[in-house]
Predict the structure.
Amino acid sequence: MSELPGGAGVALVTIFDDYGEADLDATGALARDLVARGVRSVLVCGTTGEAAALTGKERVALVEAVRAAVPAGVPVIAGTGAPSRRQAAELTSAAVTAGADAVLAWPPPGCTELVRYYGVVADAAHGRPVLAYHIPWLSSPGVPTGALAALPVGGIKDSSGSPDRLLDEVANYPGATYVGSSALLALAGPLGATGALLALANVEPERCCRAFGGDAAAQRELAGPHLEVRSGGIAALKRILAADRGTSAAVRIG
Protein backbone atom coordinates (compact mmCIF):
# COMPACT_ATOMS: atom_id res chain seq x y z
CA MET A 1 0.00 0.00 0.00
CA SER A 2 1.55 3.31 -1.05
CA GLU A 3 -1.48 5.52 -0.46
CA LEU A 4 -3.07 6.24 2.89
CA PRO A 5 -6.64 4.99 3.38
CA GLY A 6 -9.67 7.26 3.43
CA GLY A 7 -12.94 7.00 5.33
CA ALA A 8 -13.74 5.79 8.82
CA GLY A 9 -11.45 3.15 10.31
CA VAL A 10 -11.34 1.40 13.67
CA ALA A 11 -8.77 1.70 16.44
CA LEU A 12 -9.12 -1.96 17.35
CA VAL A 13 -9.31 -3.27 20.90
CA THR A 14 -7.15 -6.23 21.85
CA ILE A 15 -9.36 -8.98 23.21
CA PHE A 16 -7.89 -10.99 26.08
CA ASP A 17 -9.08 -14.43 27.11
CA ASP A 18 -10.12 -15.51 30.60
CA TYR A 19 -6.47 -16.14 31.48
CA GLY A 20 -5.40 -12.64 30.46
CA GLU A 21 -3.67 -13.74 27.25
CA ALA A 22 -4.17 -11.96 23.94
CA ASP A 23 -6.93 -13.78 22.07
CA LEU A 24 -5.70 -13.65 18.49
CA ASP A 25 -8.67 -15.46 16.99
CA ALA A 26 -11.26 -13.27 18.71
CA THR A 27 -9.38 -10.07 17.88
CA GLY A 28 -9.04 -11.08 14.24
CA ALA A 29 -12.70 -12.09 14.06
CA LEU A 30 -13.72 -8.70 15.43
CA ALA A 31 -11.61 -6.93 12.82
CA ARG A 32 -13.12 -9.03 10.04
CA ASP A 33 -16.66 -8.29 11.23
CA LEU A 34 -16.04 -4.55 11.50
CA VAL A 35 -14.65 -4.44 7.97
CA ALA A 36 -17.76 -6.29 6.75
CA ARG A 37 -19.81 -3.59 8.48
CA GLY A 38 -18.06 -0.76 6.67
CA VAL A 39 -14.83 0.32 8.33
CA ARG A 40 -12.15 1.15 5.80
CA SER A 41 -8.98 0.43 7.78
CA VAL A 42 -7.88 -1.29 11.00
CA LEU A 43 -5.43 0.15 13.51
CA VAL A 44 -3.83 -2.62 15.61
CA CYS A 45 -1.75 -2.15 18.78
CA GLY A 46 -2.77 1.46 19.23
CA THR A 47 -3.66 3.08 22.53
CA THR A 48 -7.16 1.55 22.36
CA GLY A 49 -5.48 -1.81 21.79
CA GLU A 50 -3.61 -1.39 25.09
CA ALA A 51 -0.28 -1.44 23.29
CA ALA A 52 1.65 -0.35 26.37
CA ALA A 53 0.66 -3.62 28.07
CA LEU A 54 1.55 -5.89 25.15
CA THR A 55 4.84 -7.72 24.70
CA GLY A 56 6.78 -7.43 21.46
CA LYS A 57 5.77 -10.97 20.50
CA GLU A 58 2.11 -10.20 21.17
CA ARG A 59 2.27 -7.10 18.98
CA VAL A 60 3.71 -9.09 16.09
CA ALA A 61 1.18 -11.87 16.53
CA LEU A 62 -1.72 -9.41 16.60
CA VAL A 63 -0.60 -7.67 13.41
CA GLU A 64 -0.23 -11.05 11.71
CA ALA A 65 -3.63 -12.24 12.94
CA VAL A 66 -5.50 -9.13 11.85
CA ARG A 67 -3.70 -8.97 8.50
CA ALA A 68 -4.76 -12.57 7.87
CA ALA A 69 -8.33 -11.92 9.02
CA VAL A 70 -9.25 -8.96 6.82
CA PRO A 71 -9.29 -8.70 3.01
CA ALA A 72 -6.03 -7.80 1.31
CA GLY A 73 -7.35 -4.45 0.13
CA VAL A 74 -8.10 -3.25 3.66
CA PRO A 75 -5.09 -1.45 5.17
CA VAL A 76 -3.78 -2.65 8.53
CA ILE A 77 -2.04 0.11 10.46
CA ALA A 78 0.19 -0.71 13.43
CA GLY A 79 0.77 1.53 16.41
CA THR A 80 4.52 1.92 16.99
CA GLY A 81 4.90 5.01 19.15
CA ALA A 82 7.46 4.68 21.95
CA PRO A 83 9.41 6.72 24.50
CA SER A 84 12.59 6.59 22.41
CA ARG A 85 13.64 6.61 18.75
CA ARG A 86 15.29 3.22 19.12
CA GLN A 87 12.19 1.58 20.57
CA ALA A 88 9.94 3.14 17.94
CA ALA A 89 12.25 1.96 15.15
CA GLU A 90 12.30 -1.61 16.51
CA LEU A 91 8.51 -1.69 16.87
CA THR A 92 8.07 -0.24 13.38
CA SER A 93 10.42 -2.72 11.73
CA ALA A 94 8.73 -5.64 13.49
CA ALA A 95 5.26 -4.41 12.52
CA VAL A 96 6.18 -4.02 8.86
CA THR A 97 7.72 -7.49 8.80
CA ALA A 98 4.51 -8.85 10.34
CA GLY A 99 2.44 -7.37 7.51
CA ALA A 100 1.46 -3.84 8.55
CA ASP A 101 0.63 -1.61 5.60
CA ALA A 102 1.33 1.60 7.53
CA VAL A 103 2.36 2.71 11.02
CA LEU A 104 1.11 5.28 13.51
CA ALA A 105 3.58 6.69 16.05
CA TRP A 106 3.17 9.15 18.90
CA PRO A 107 6.34 11.05 19.82
CA PRO A 108 8.16 10.70 23.15
CA PRO A 109 6.82 13.05 25.85
CA GLY A 110 8.67 16.35 25.71
CA CYS A 111 10.25 15.50 22.36
CA THR A 112 12.08 18.49 20.85
CA GLU A 113 13.46 16.67 17.80
CA LEU A 114 10.31 15.61 15.98
CA VAL A 115 11.95 15.63 12.54
CA ARG A 116 14.70 13.31 13.74
CA TYR A 117 12.27 11.02 15.59
CA TYR A 118 9.93 10.60 12.64
CA GLY A 119 12.87 10.26 10.27
CA VAL A 120 14.03 7.21 12.22
CA VAL A 121 10.50 5.78 12.18
CA ALA A 122 10.19 6.41 8.44
CA ASP A 123 13.51 4.66 7.77
CA ALA A 124 12.34 1.64 9.77
CA ALA A 125 9.03 1.58 7.88
CA HIS A 126 10.85 0.76 4.61
CA GLY A 127 8.54 2.77 2.38
CA ARG A 128 5.29 2.12 4.24
CA PRO A 129 3.33 5.28 5.08
CA VAL A 130 3.92 6.81 8.50
CA LEU A 131 1.32 8.77 10.45
CA ALA A 132 2.25 11.08 13.28
CA TYR A 133 -0.04 10.79 16.30
CA HIS A 134 -1.15 13.81 18.31
CA ILE A 135 -2.40 12.51 21.66
CA PRO A 136 -1.28 15.16 24.16
CA TRP A 137 -2.40 13.38 27.36
CA LEU A 138 -0.08 10.48 26.49
CA SER A 139 2.87 12.30 24.92
CA SER A 140 2.70 15.96 25.90
CA PRO A 141 2.96 18.39 24.20
CA GLY A 142 2.29 16.22 21.17
CA VAL A 143 2.72 17.32 17.57
CA PRO A 144 2.19 21.06 16.98
CA THR A 145 0.30 21.89 13.79
CA GLY A 146 3.06 24.30 12.80
CA ALA A 147 5.58 21.43 12.80
CA LEU A 148 3.60 19.06 10.60
CA ALA A 149 4.70 20.22 7.17
CA ALA A 150 8.37 19.62 8.00
CA LEU A 151 7.91 16.08 9.27
CA PRO A 152 8.76 13.05 7.08
CA VAL A 153 5.26 11.61 7.49
CA GLY A 154 2.24 11.18 5.25
CA GLY A 155 -0.28 12.51 7.71
CA ILE A 156 -1.50 13.03 11.26
CA LYS A 157 -3.99 11.34 13.54
CA ASP A 158 -5.39 14.01 15.84
CA SER A 159 -7.03 12.70 19.01
CA SER A 160 -7.12 16.05 20.79
CA GLY A 161 -10.85 16.48 20.21
CA SER A 162 -10.27 20.14 19.37
CA PRO A 163 -12.39 21.48 16.49
CA ASP A 164 -10.08 24.49 16.18
CA ARG A 165 -7.06 22.27 15.68
CA LEU A 166 -8.96 20.07 13.23
CA LEU A 167 -9.94 23.12 11.18
CA ASP A 168 -6.31 24.30 11.18
CA GLU A 169 -5.07 20.90 9.99
CA VAL A 170 -7.63 20.52 7.22
CA ALA A 171 -7.20 24.10 6.02
CA ASN A 172 -3.43 24.46 6.28
CA TYR A 173 -1.72 21.06 6.34
CA PRO A 174 -1.20 19.44 2.91
CA GLY A 175 -0.84 15.91 4.30
CA ALA A 176 -3.57 13.49 5.35
CA THR A 177 -5.60 14.35 8.44
CA TYR A 178 -7.33 11.64 10.49
CA VAL A 179 -9.67 12.51 13.33
CA GLY A 180 -9.48 10.37 16.45
CA SER A 181 -12.50 11.78 18.29
CA SER A 182 -15.92 10.33 17.49
CA ALA A 183 -17.45 13.66 18.62
CA LEU A 184 -16.15 15.44 15.51
CA LEU A 185 -17.00 13.06 12.67
CA ALA A 186 -19.81 15.02 11.03
CA LEU A 187 -17.48 18.03 11.04
CA ALA A 188 -14.31 16.24 9.92
CA GLY A 189 -15.66 14.40 6.89
CA PRO A 190 -17.47 17.31 5.22
CA LEU A 191 -14.50 19.59 5.94
CA GLY A 192 -12.26 17.31 3.90
CA ALA A 193 -10.41 15.24 6.52
CA THR A 194 -8.89 12.14 4.94
CA GLY A 195 -10.37 9.72 7.42
CA ALA A 196 -10.91 8.69 11.02
CA LEU A 197 -9.38 6.06 13.31
CA LEU A 198 -11.87 5.49 16.09
CA ALA A 199 -12.18 3.53 19.32
CA LEU A 200 -15.97 3.84 19.12
CA ALA A 201 -16.01 2.05 15.75
CA ASN A 202 -15.44 -1.20 17.69
CA VAL A 203 -19.09 -1.02 18.75
CA GLU A 204 -20.67 1.54 16.40
CA PRO A 205 -19.07 1.00 12.98
CA GLU A 206 -22.10 1.85 10.85
CA ARG A 207 -22.96 5.06 12.67
CA CYS A 208 -19.32 6.15 12.70
CA CYS A 209 -19.15 5.66 8.93
CA ARG A 210 -22.38 7.57 8.38
CA ALA A 211 -21.35 10.41 10.66
CA PHE A 212 -18.00 10.80 8.89
CA GLY A 213 -19.98 10.98 5.67
CA GLY A 214 -21.79 14.03 7.04
CA ASP A 215 -24.88 12.44 8.59
CA ALA A 216 -25.73 14.76 11.49
CA ALA A 217 -28.42 12.41 12.80
CA ALA A 218 -25.87 9.61 13.08
CA GLN A 219 -23.51 11.97 14.90
CA ARG A 220 -26.23 12.79 17.43
CA GLU A 221 -27.01 9.09 17.87
CA LEU A 222 -23.35 8.52 18.77
CA ALA A 223 -23.56 10.98 21.68
CA GLY A 224 -24.53 8.39 24.29
CA PRO A 225 -21.93 5.72 23.49
CA HIS A 226 -19.27 8.37 22.79
CA LEU A 227 -19.73 9.95 26.21
CA GLU A 228 -19.88 6.55 27.92
CA VAL A 229 -16.57 5.48 26.40
CA ARG A 230 -15.00 8.89 26.96
CA SER A 231 -15.89 8.63 30.64
CA GLY A 232 -15.12 4.94 31.18
CA GLY A 233 -12.24 4.39 28.78
CA ILE A 234 -11.21 1.03 27.35
CA ALA A 235 -12.96 -0.87 30.15
CA ALA A 236 -16.31 0.72 29.22
CA LEU A 237 -15.71 0.01 25.54
CA LYS A 238 -14.99 -3.65 26.26
CA ARG A 239 -18.08 -3.95 28.45
CA ILE A 240 -20.24 -2.72 25.58
CA LEU A 241 -18.48 -5.10 23.21
CA ALA A 242 -18.91 -8.02 25.63
CA ALA A 243 -22.65 -7.32 25.85
CA ASP A 244 -22.93 -7.16 22.06
CA ARG A 245 -20.65 -10.08 21.08
CA GLY A 246 -20.06 -12.16 24.19
CA THR A 247 -16.31 -11.46 24.12
CA SER A 248 -14.22 -11.11 27.25
CA ALA A 249 -14.28 -7.70 28.90
CA ALA A 250 -10.83 -8.23 30.41
CA VAL A 251 -8.42 -5.30 30.28
CA ARG A 252 -4.77 -4.89 31.15
CA ILE A 253 -4.95 -1.10 31.37
CA GLY A 254 -7.65 0.65 33.36
Remarks:
- The first strand starts at residue 7 and ends at 11.
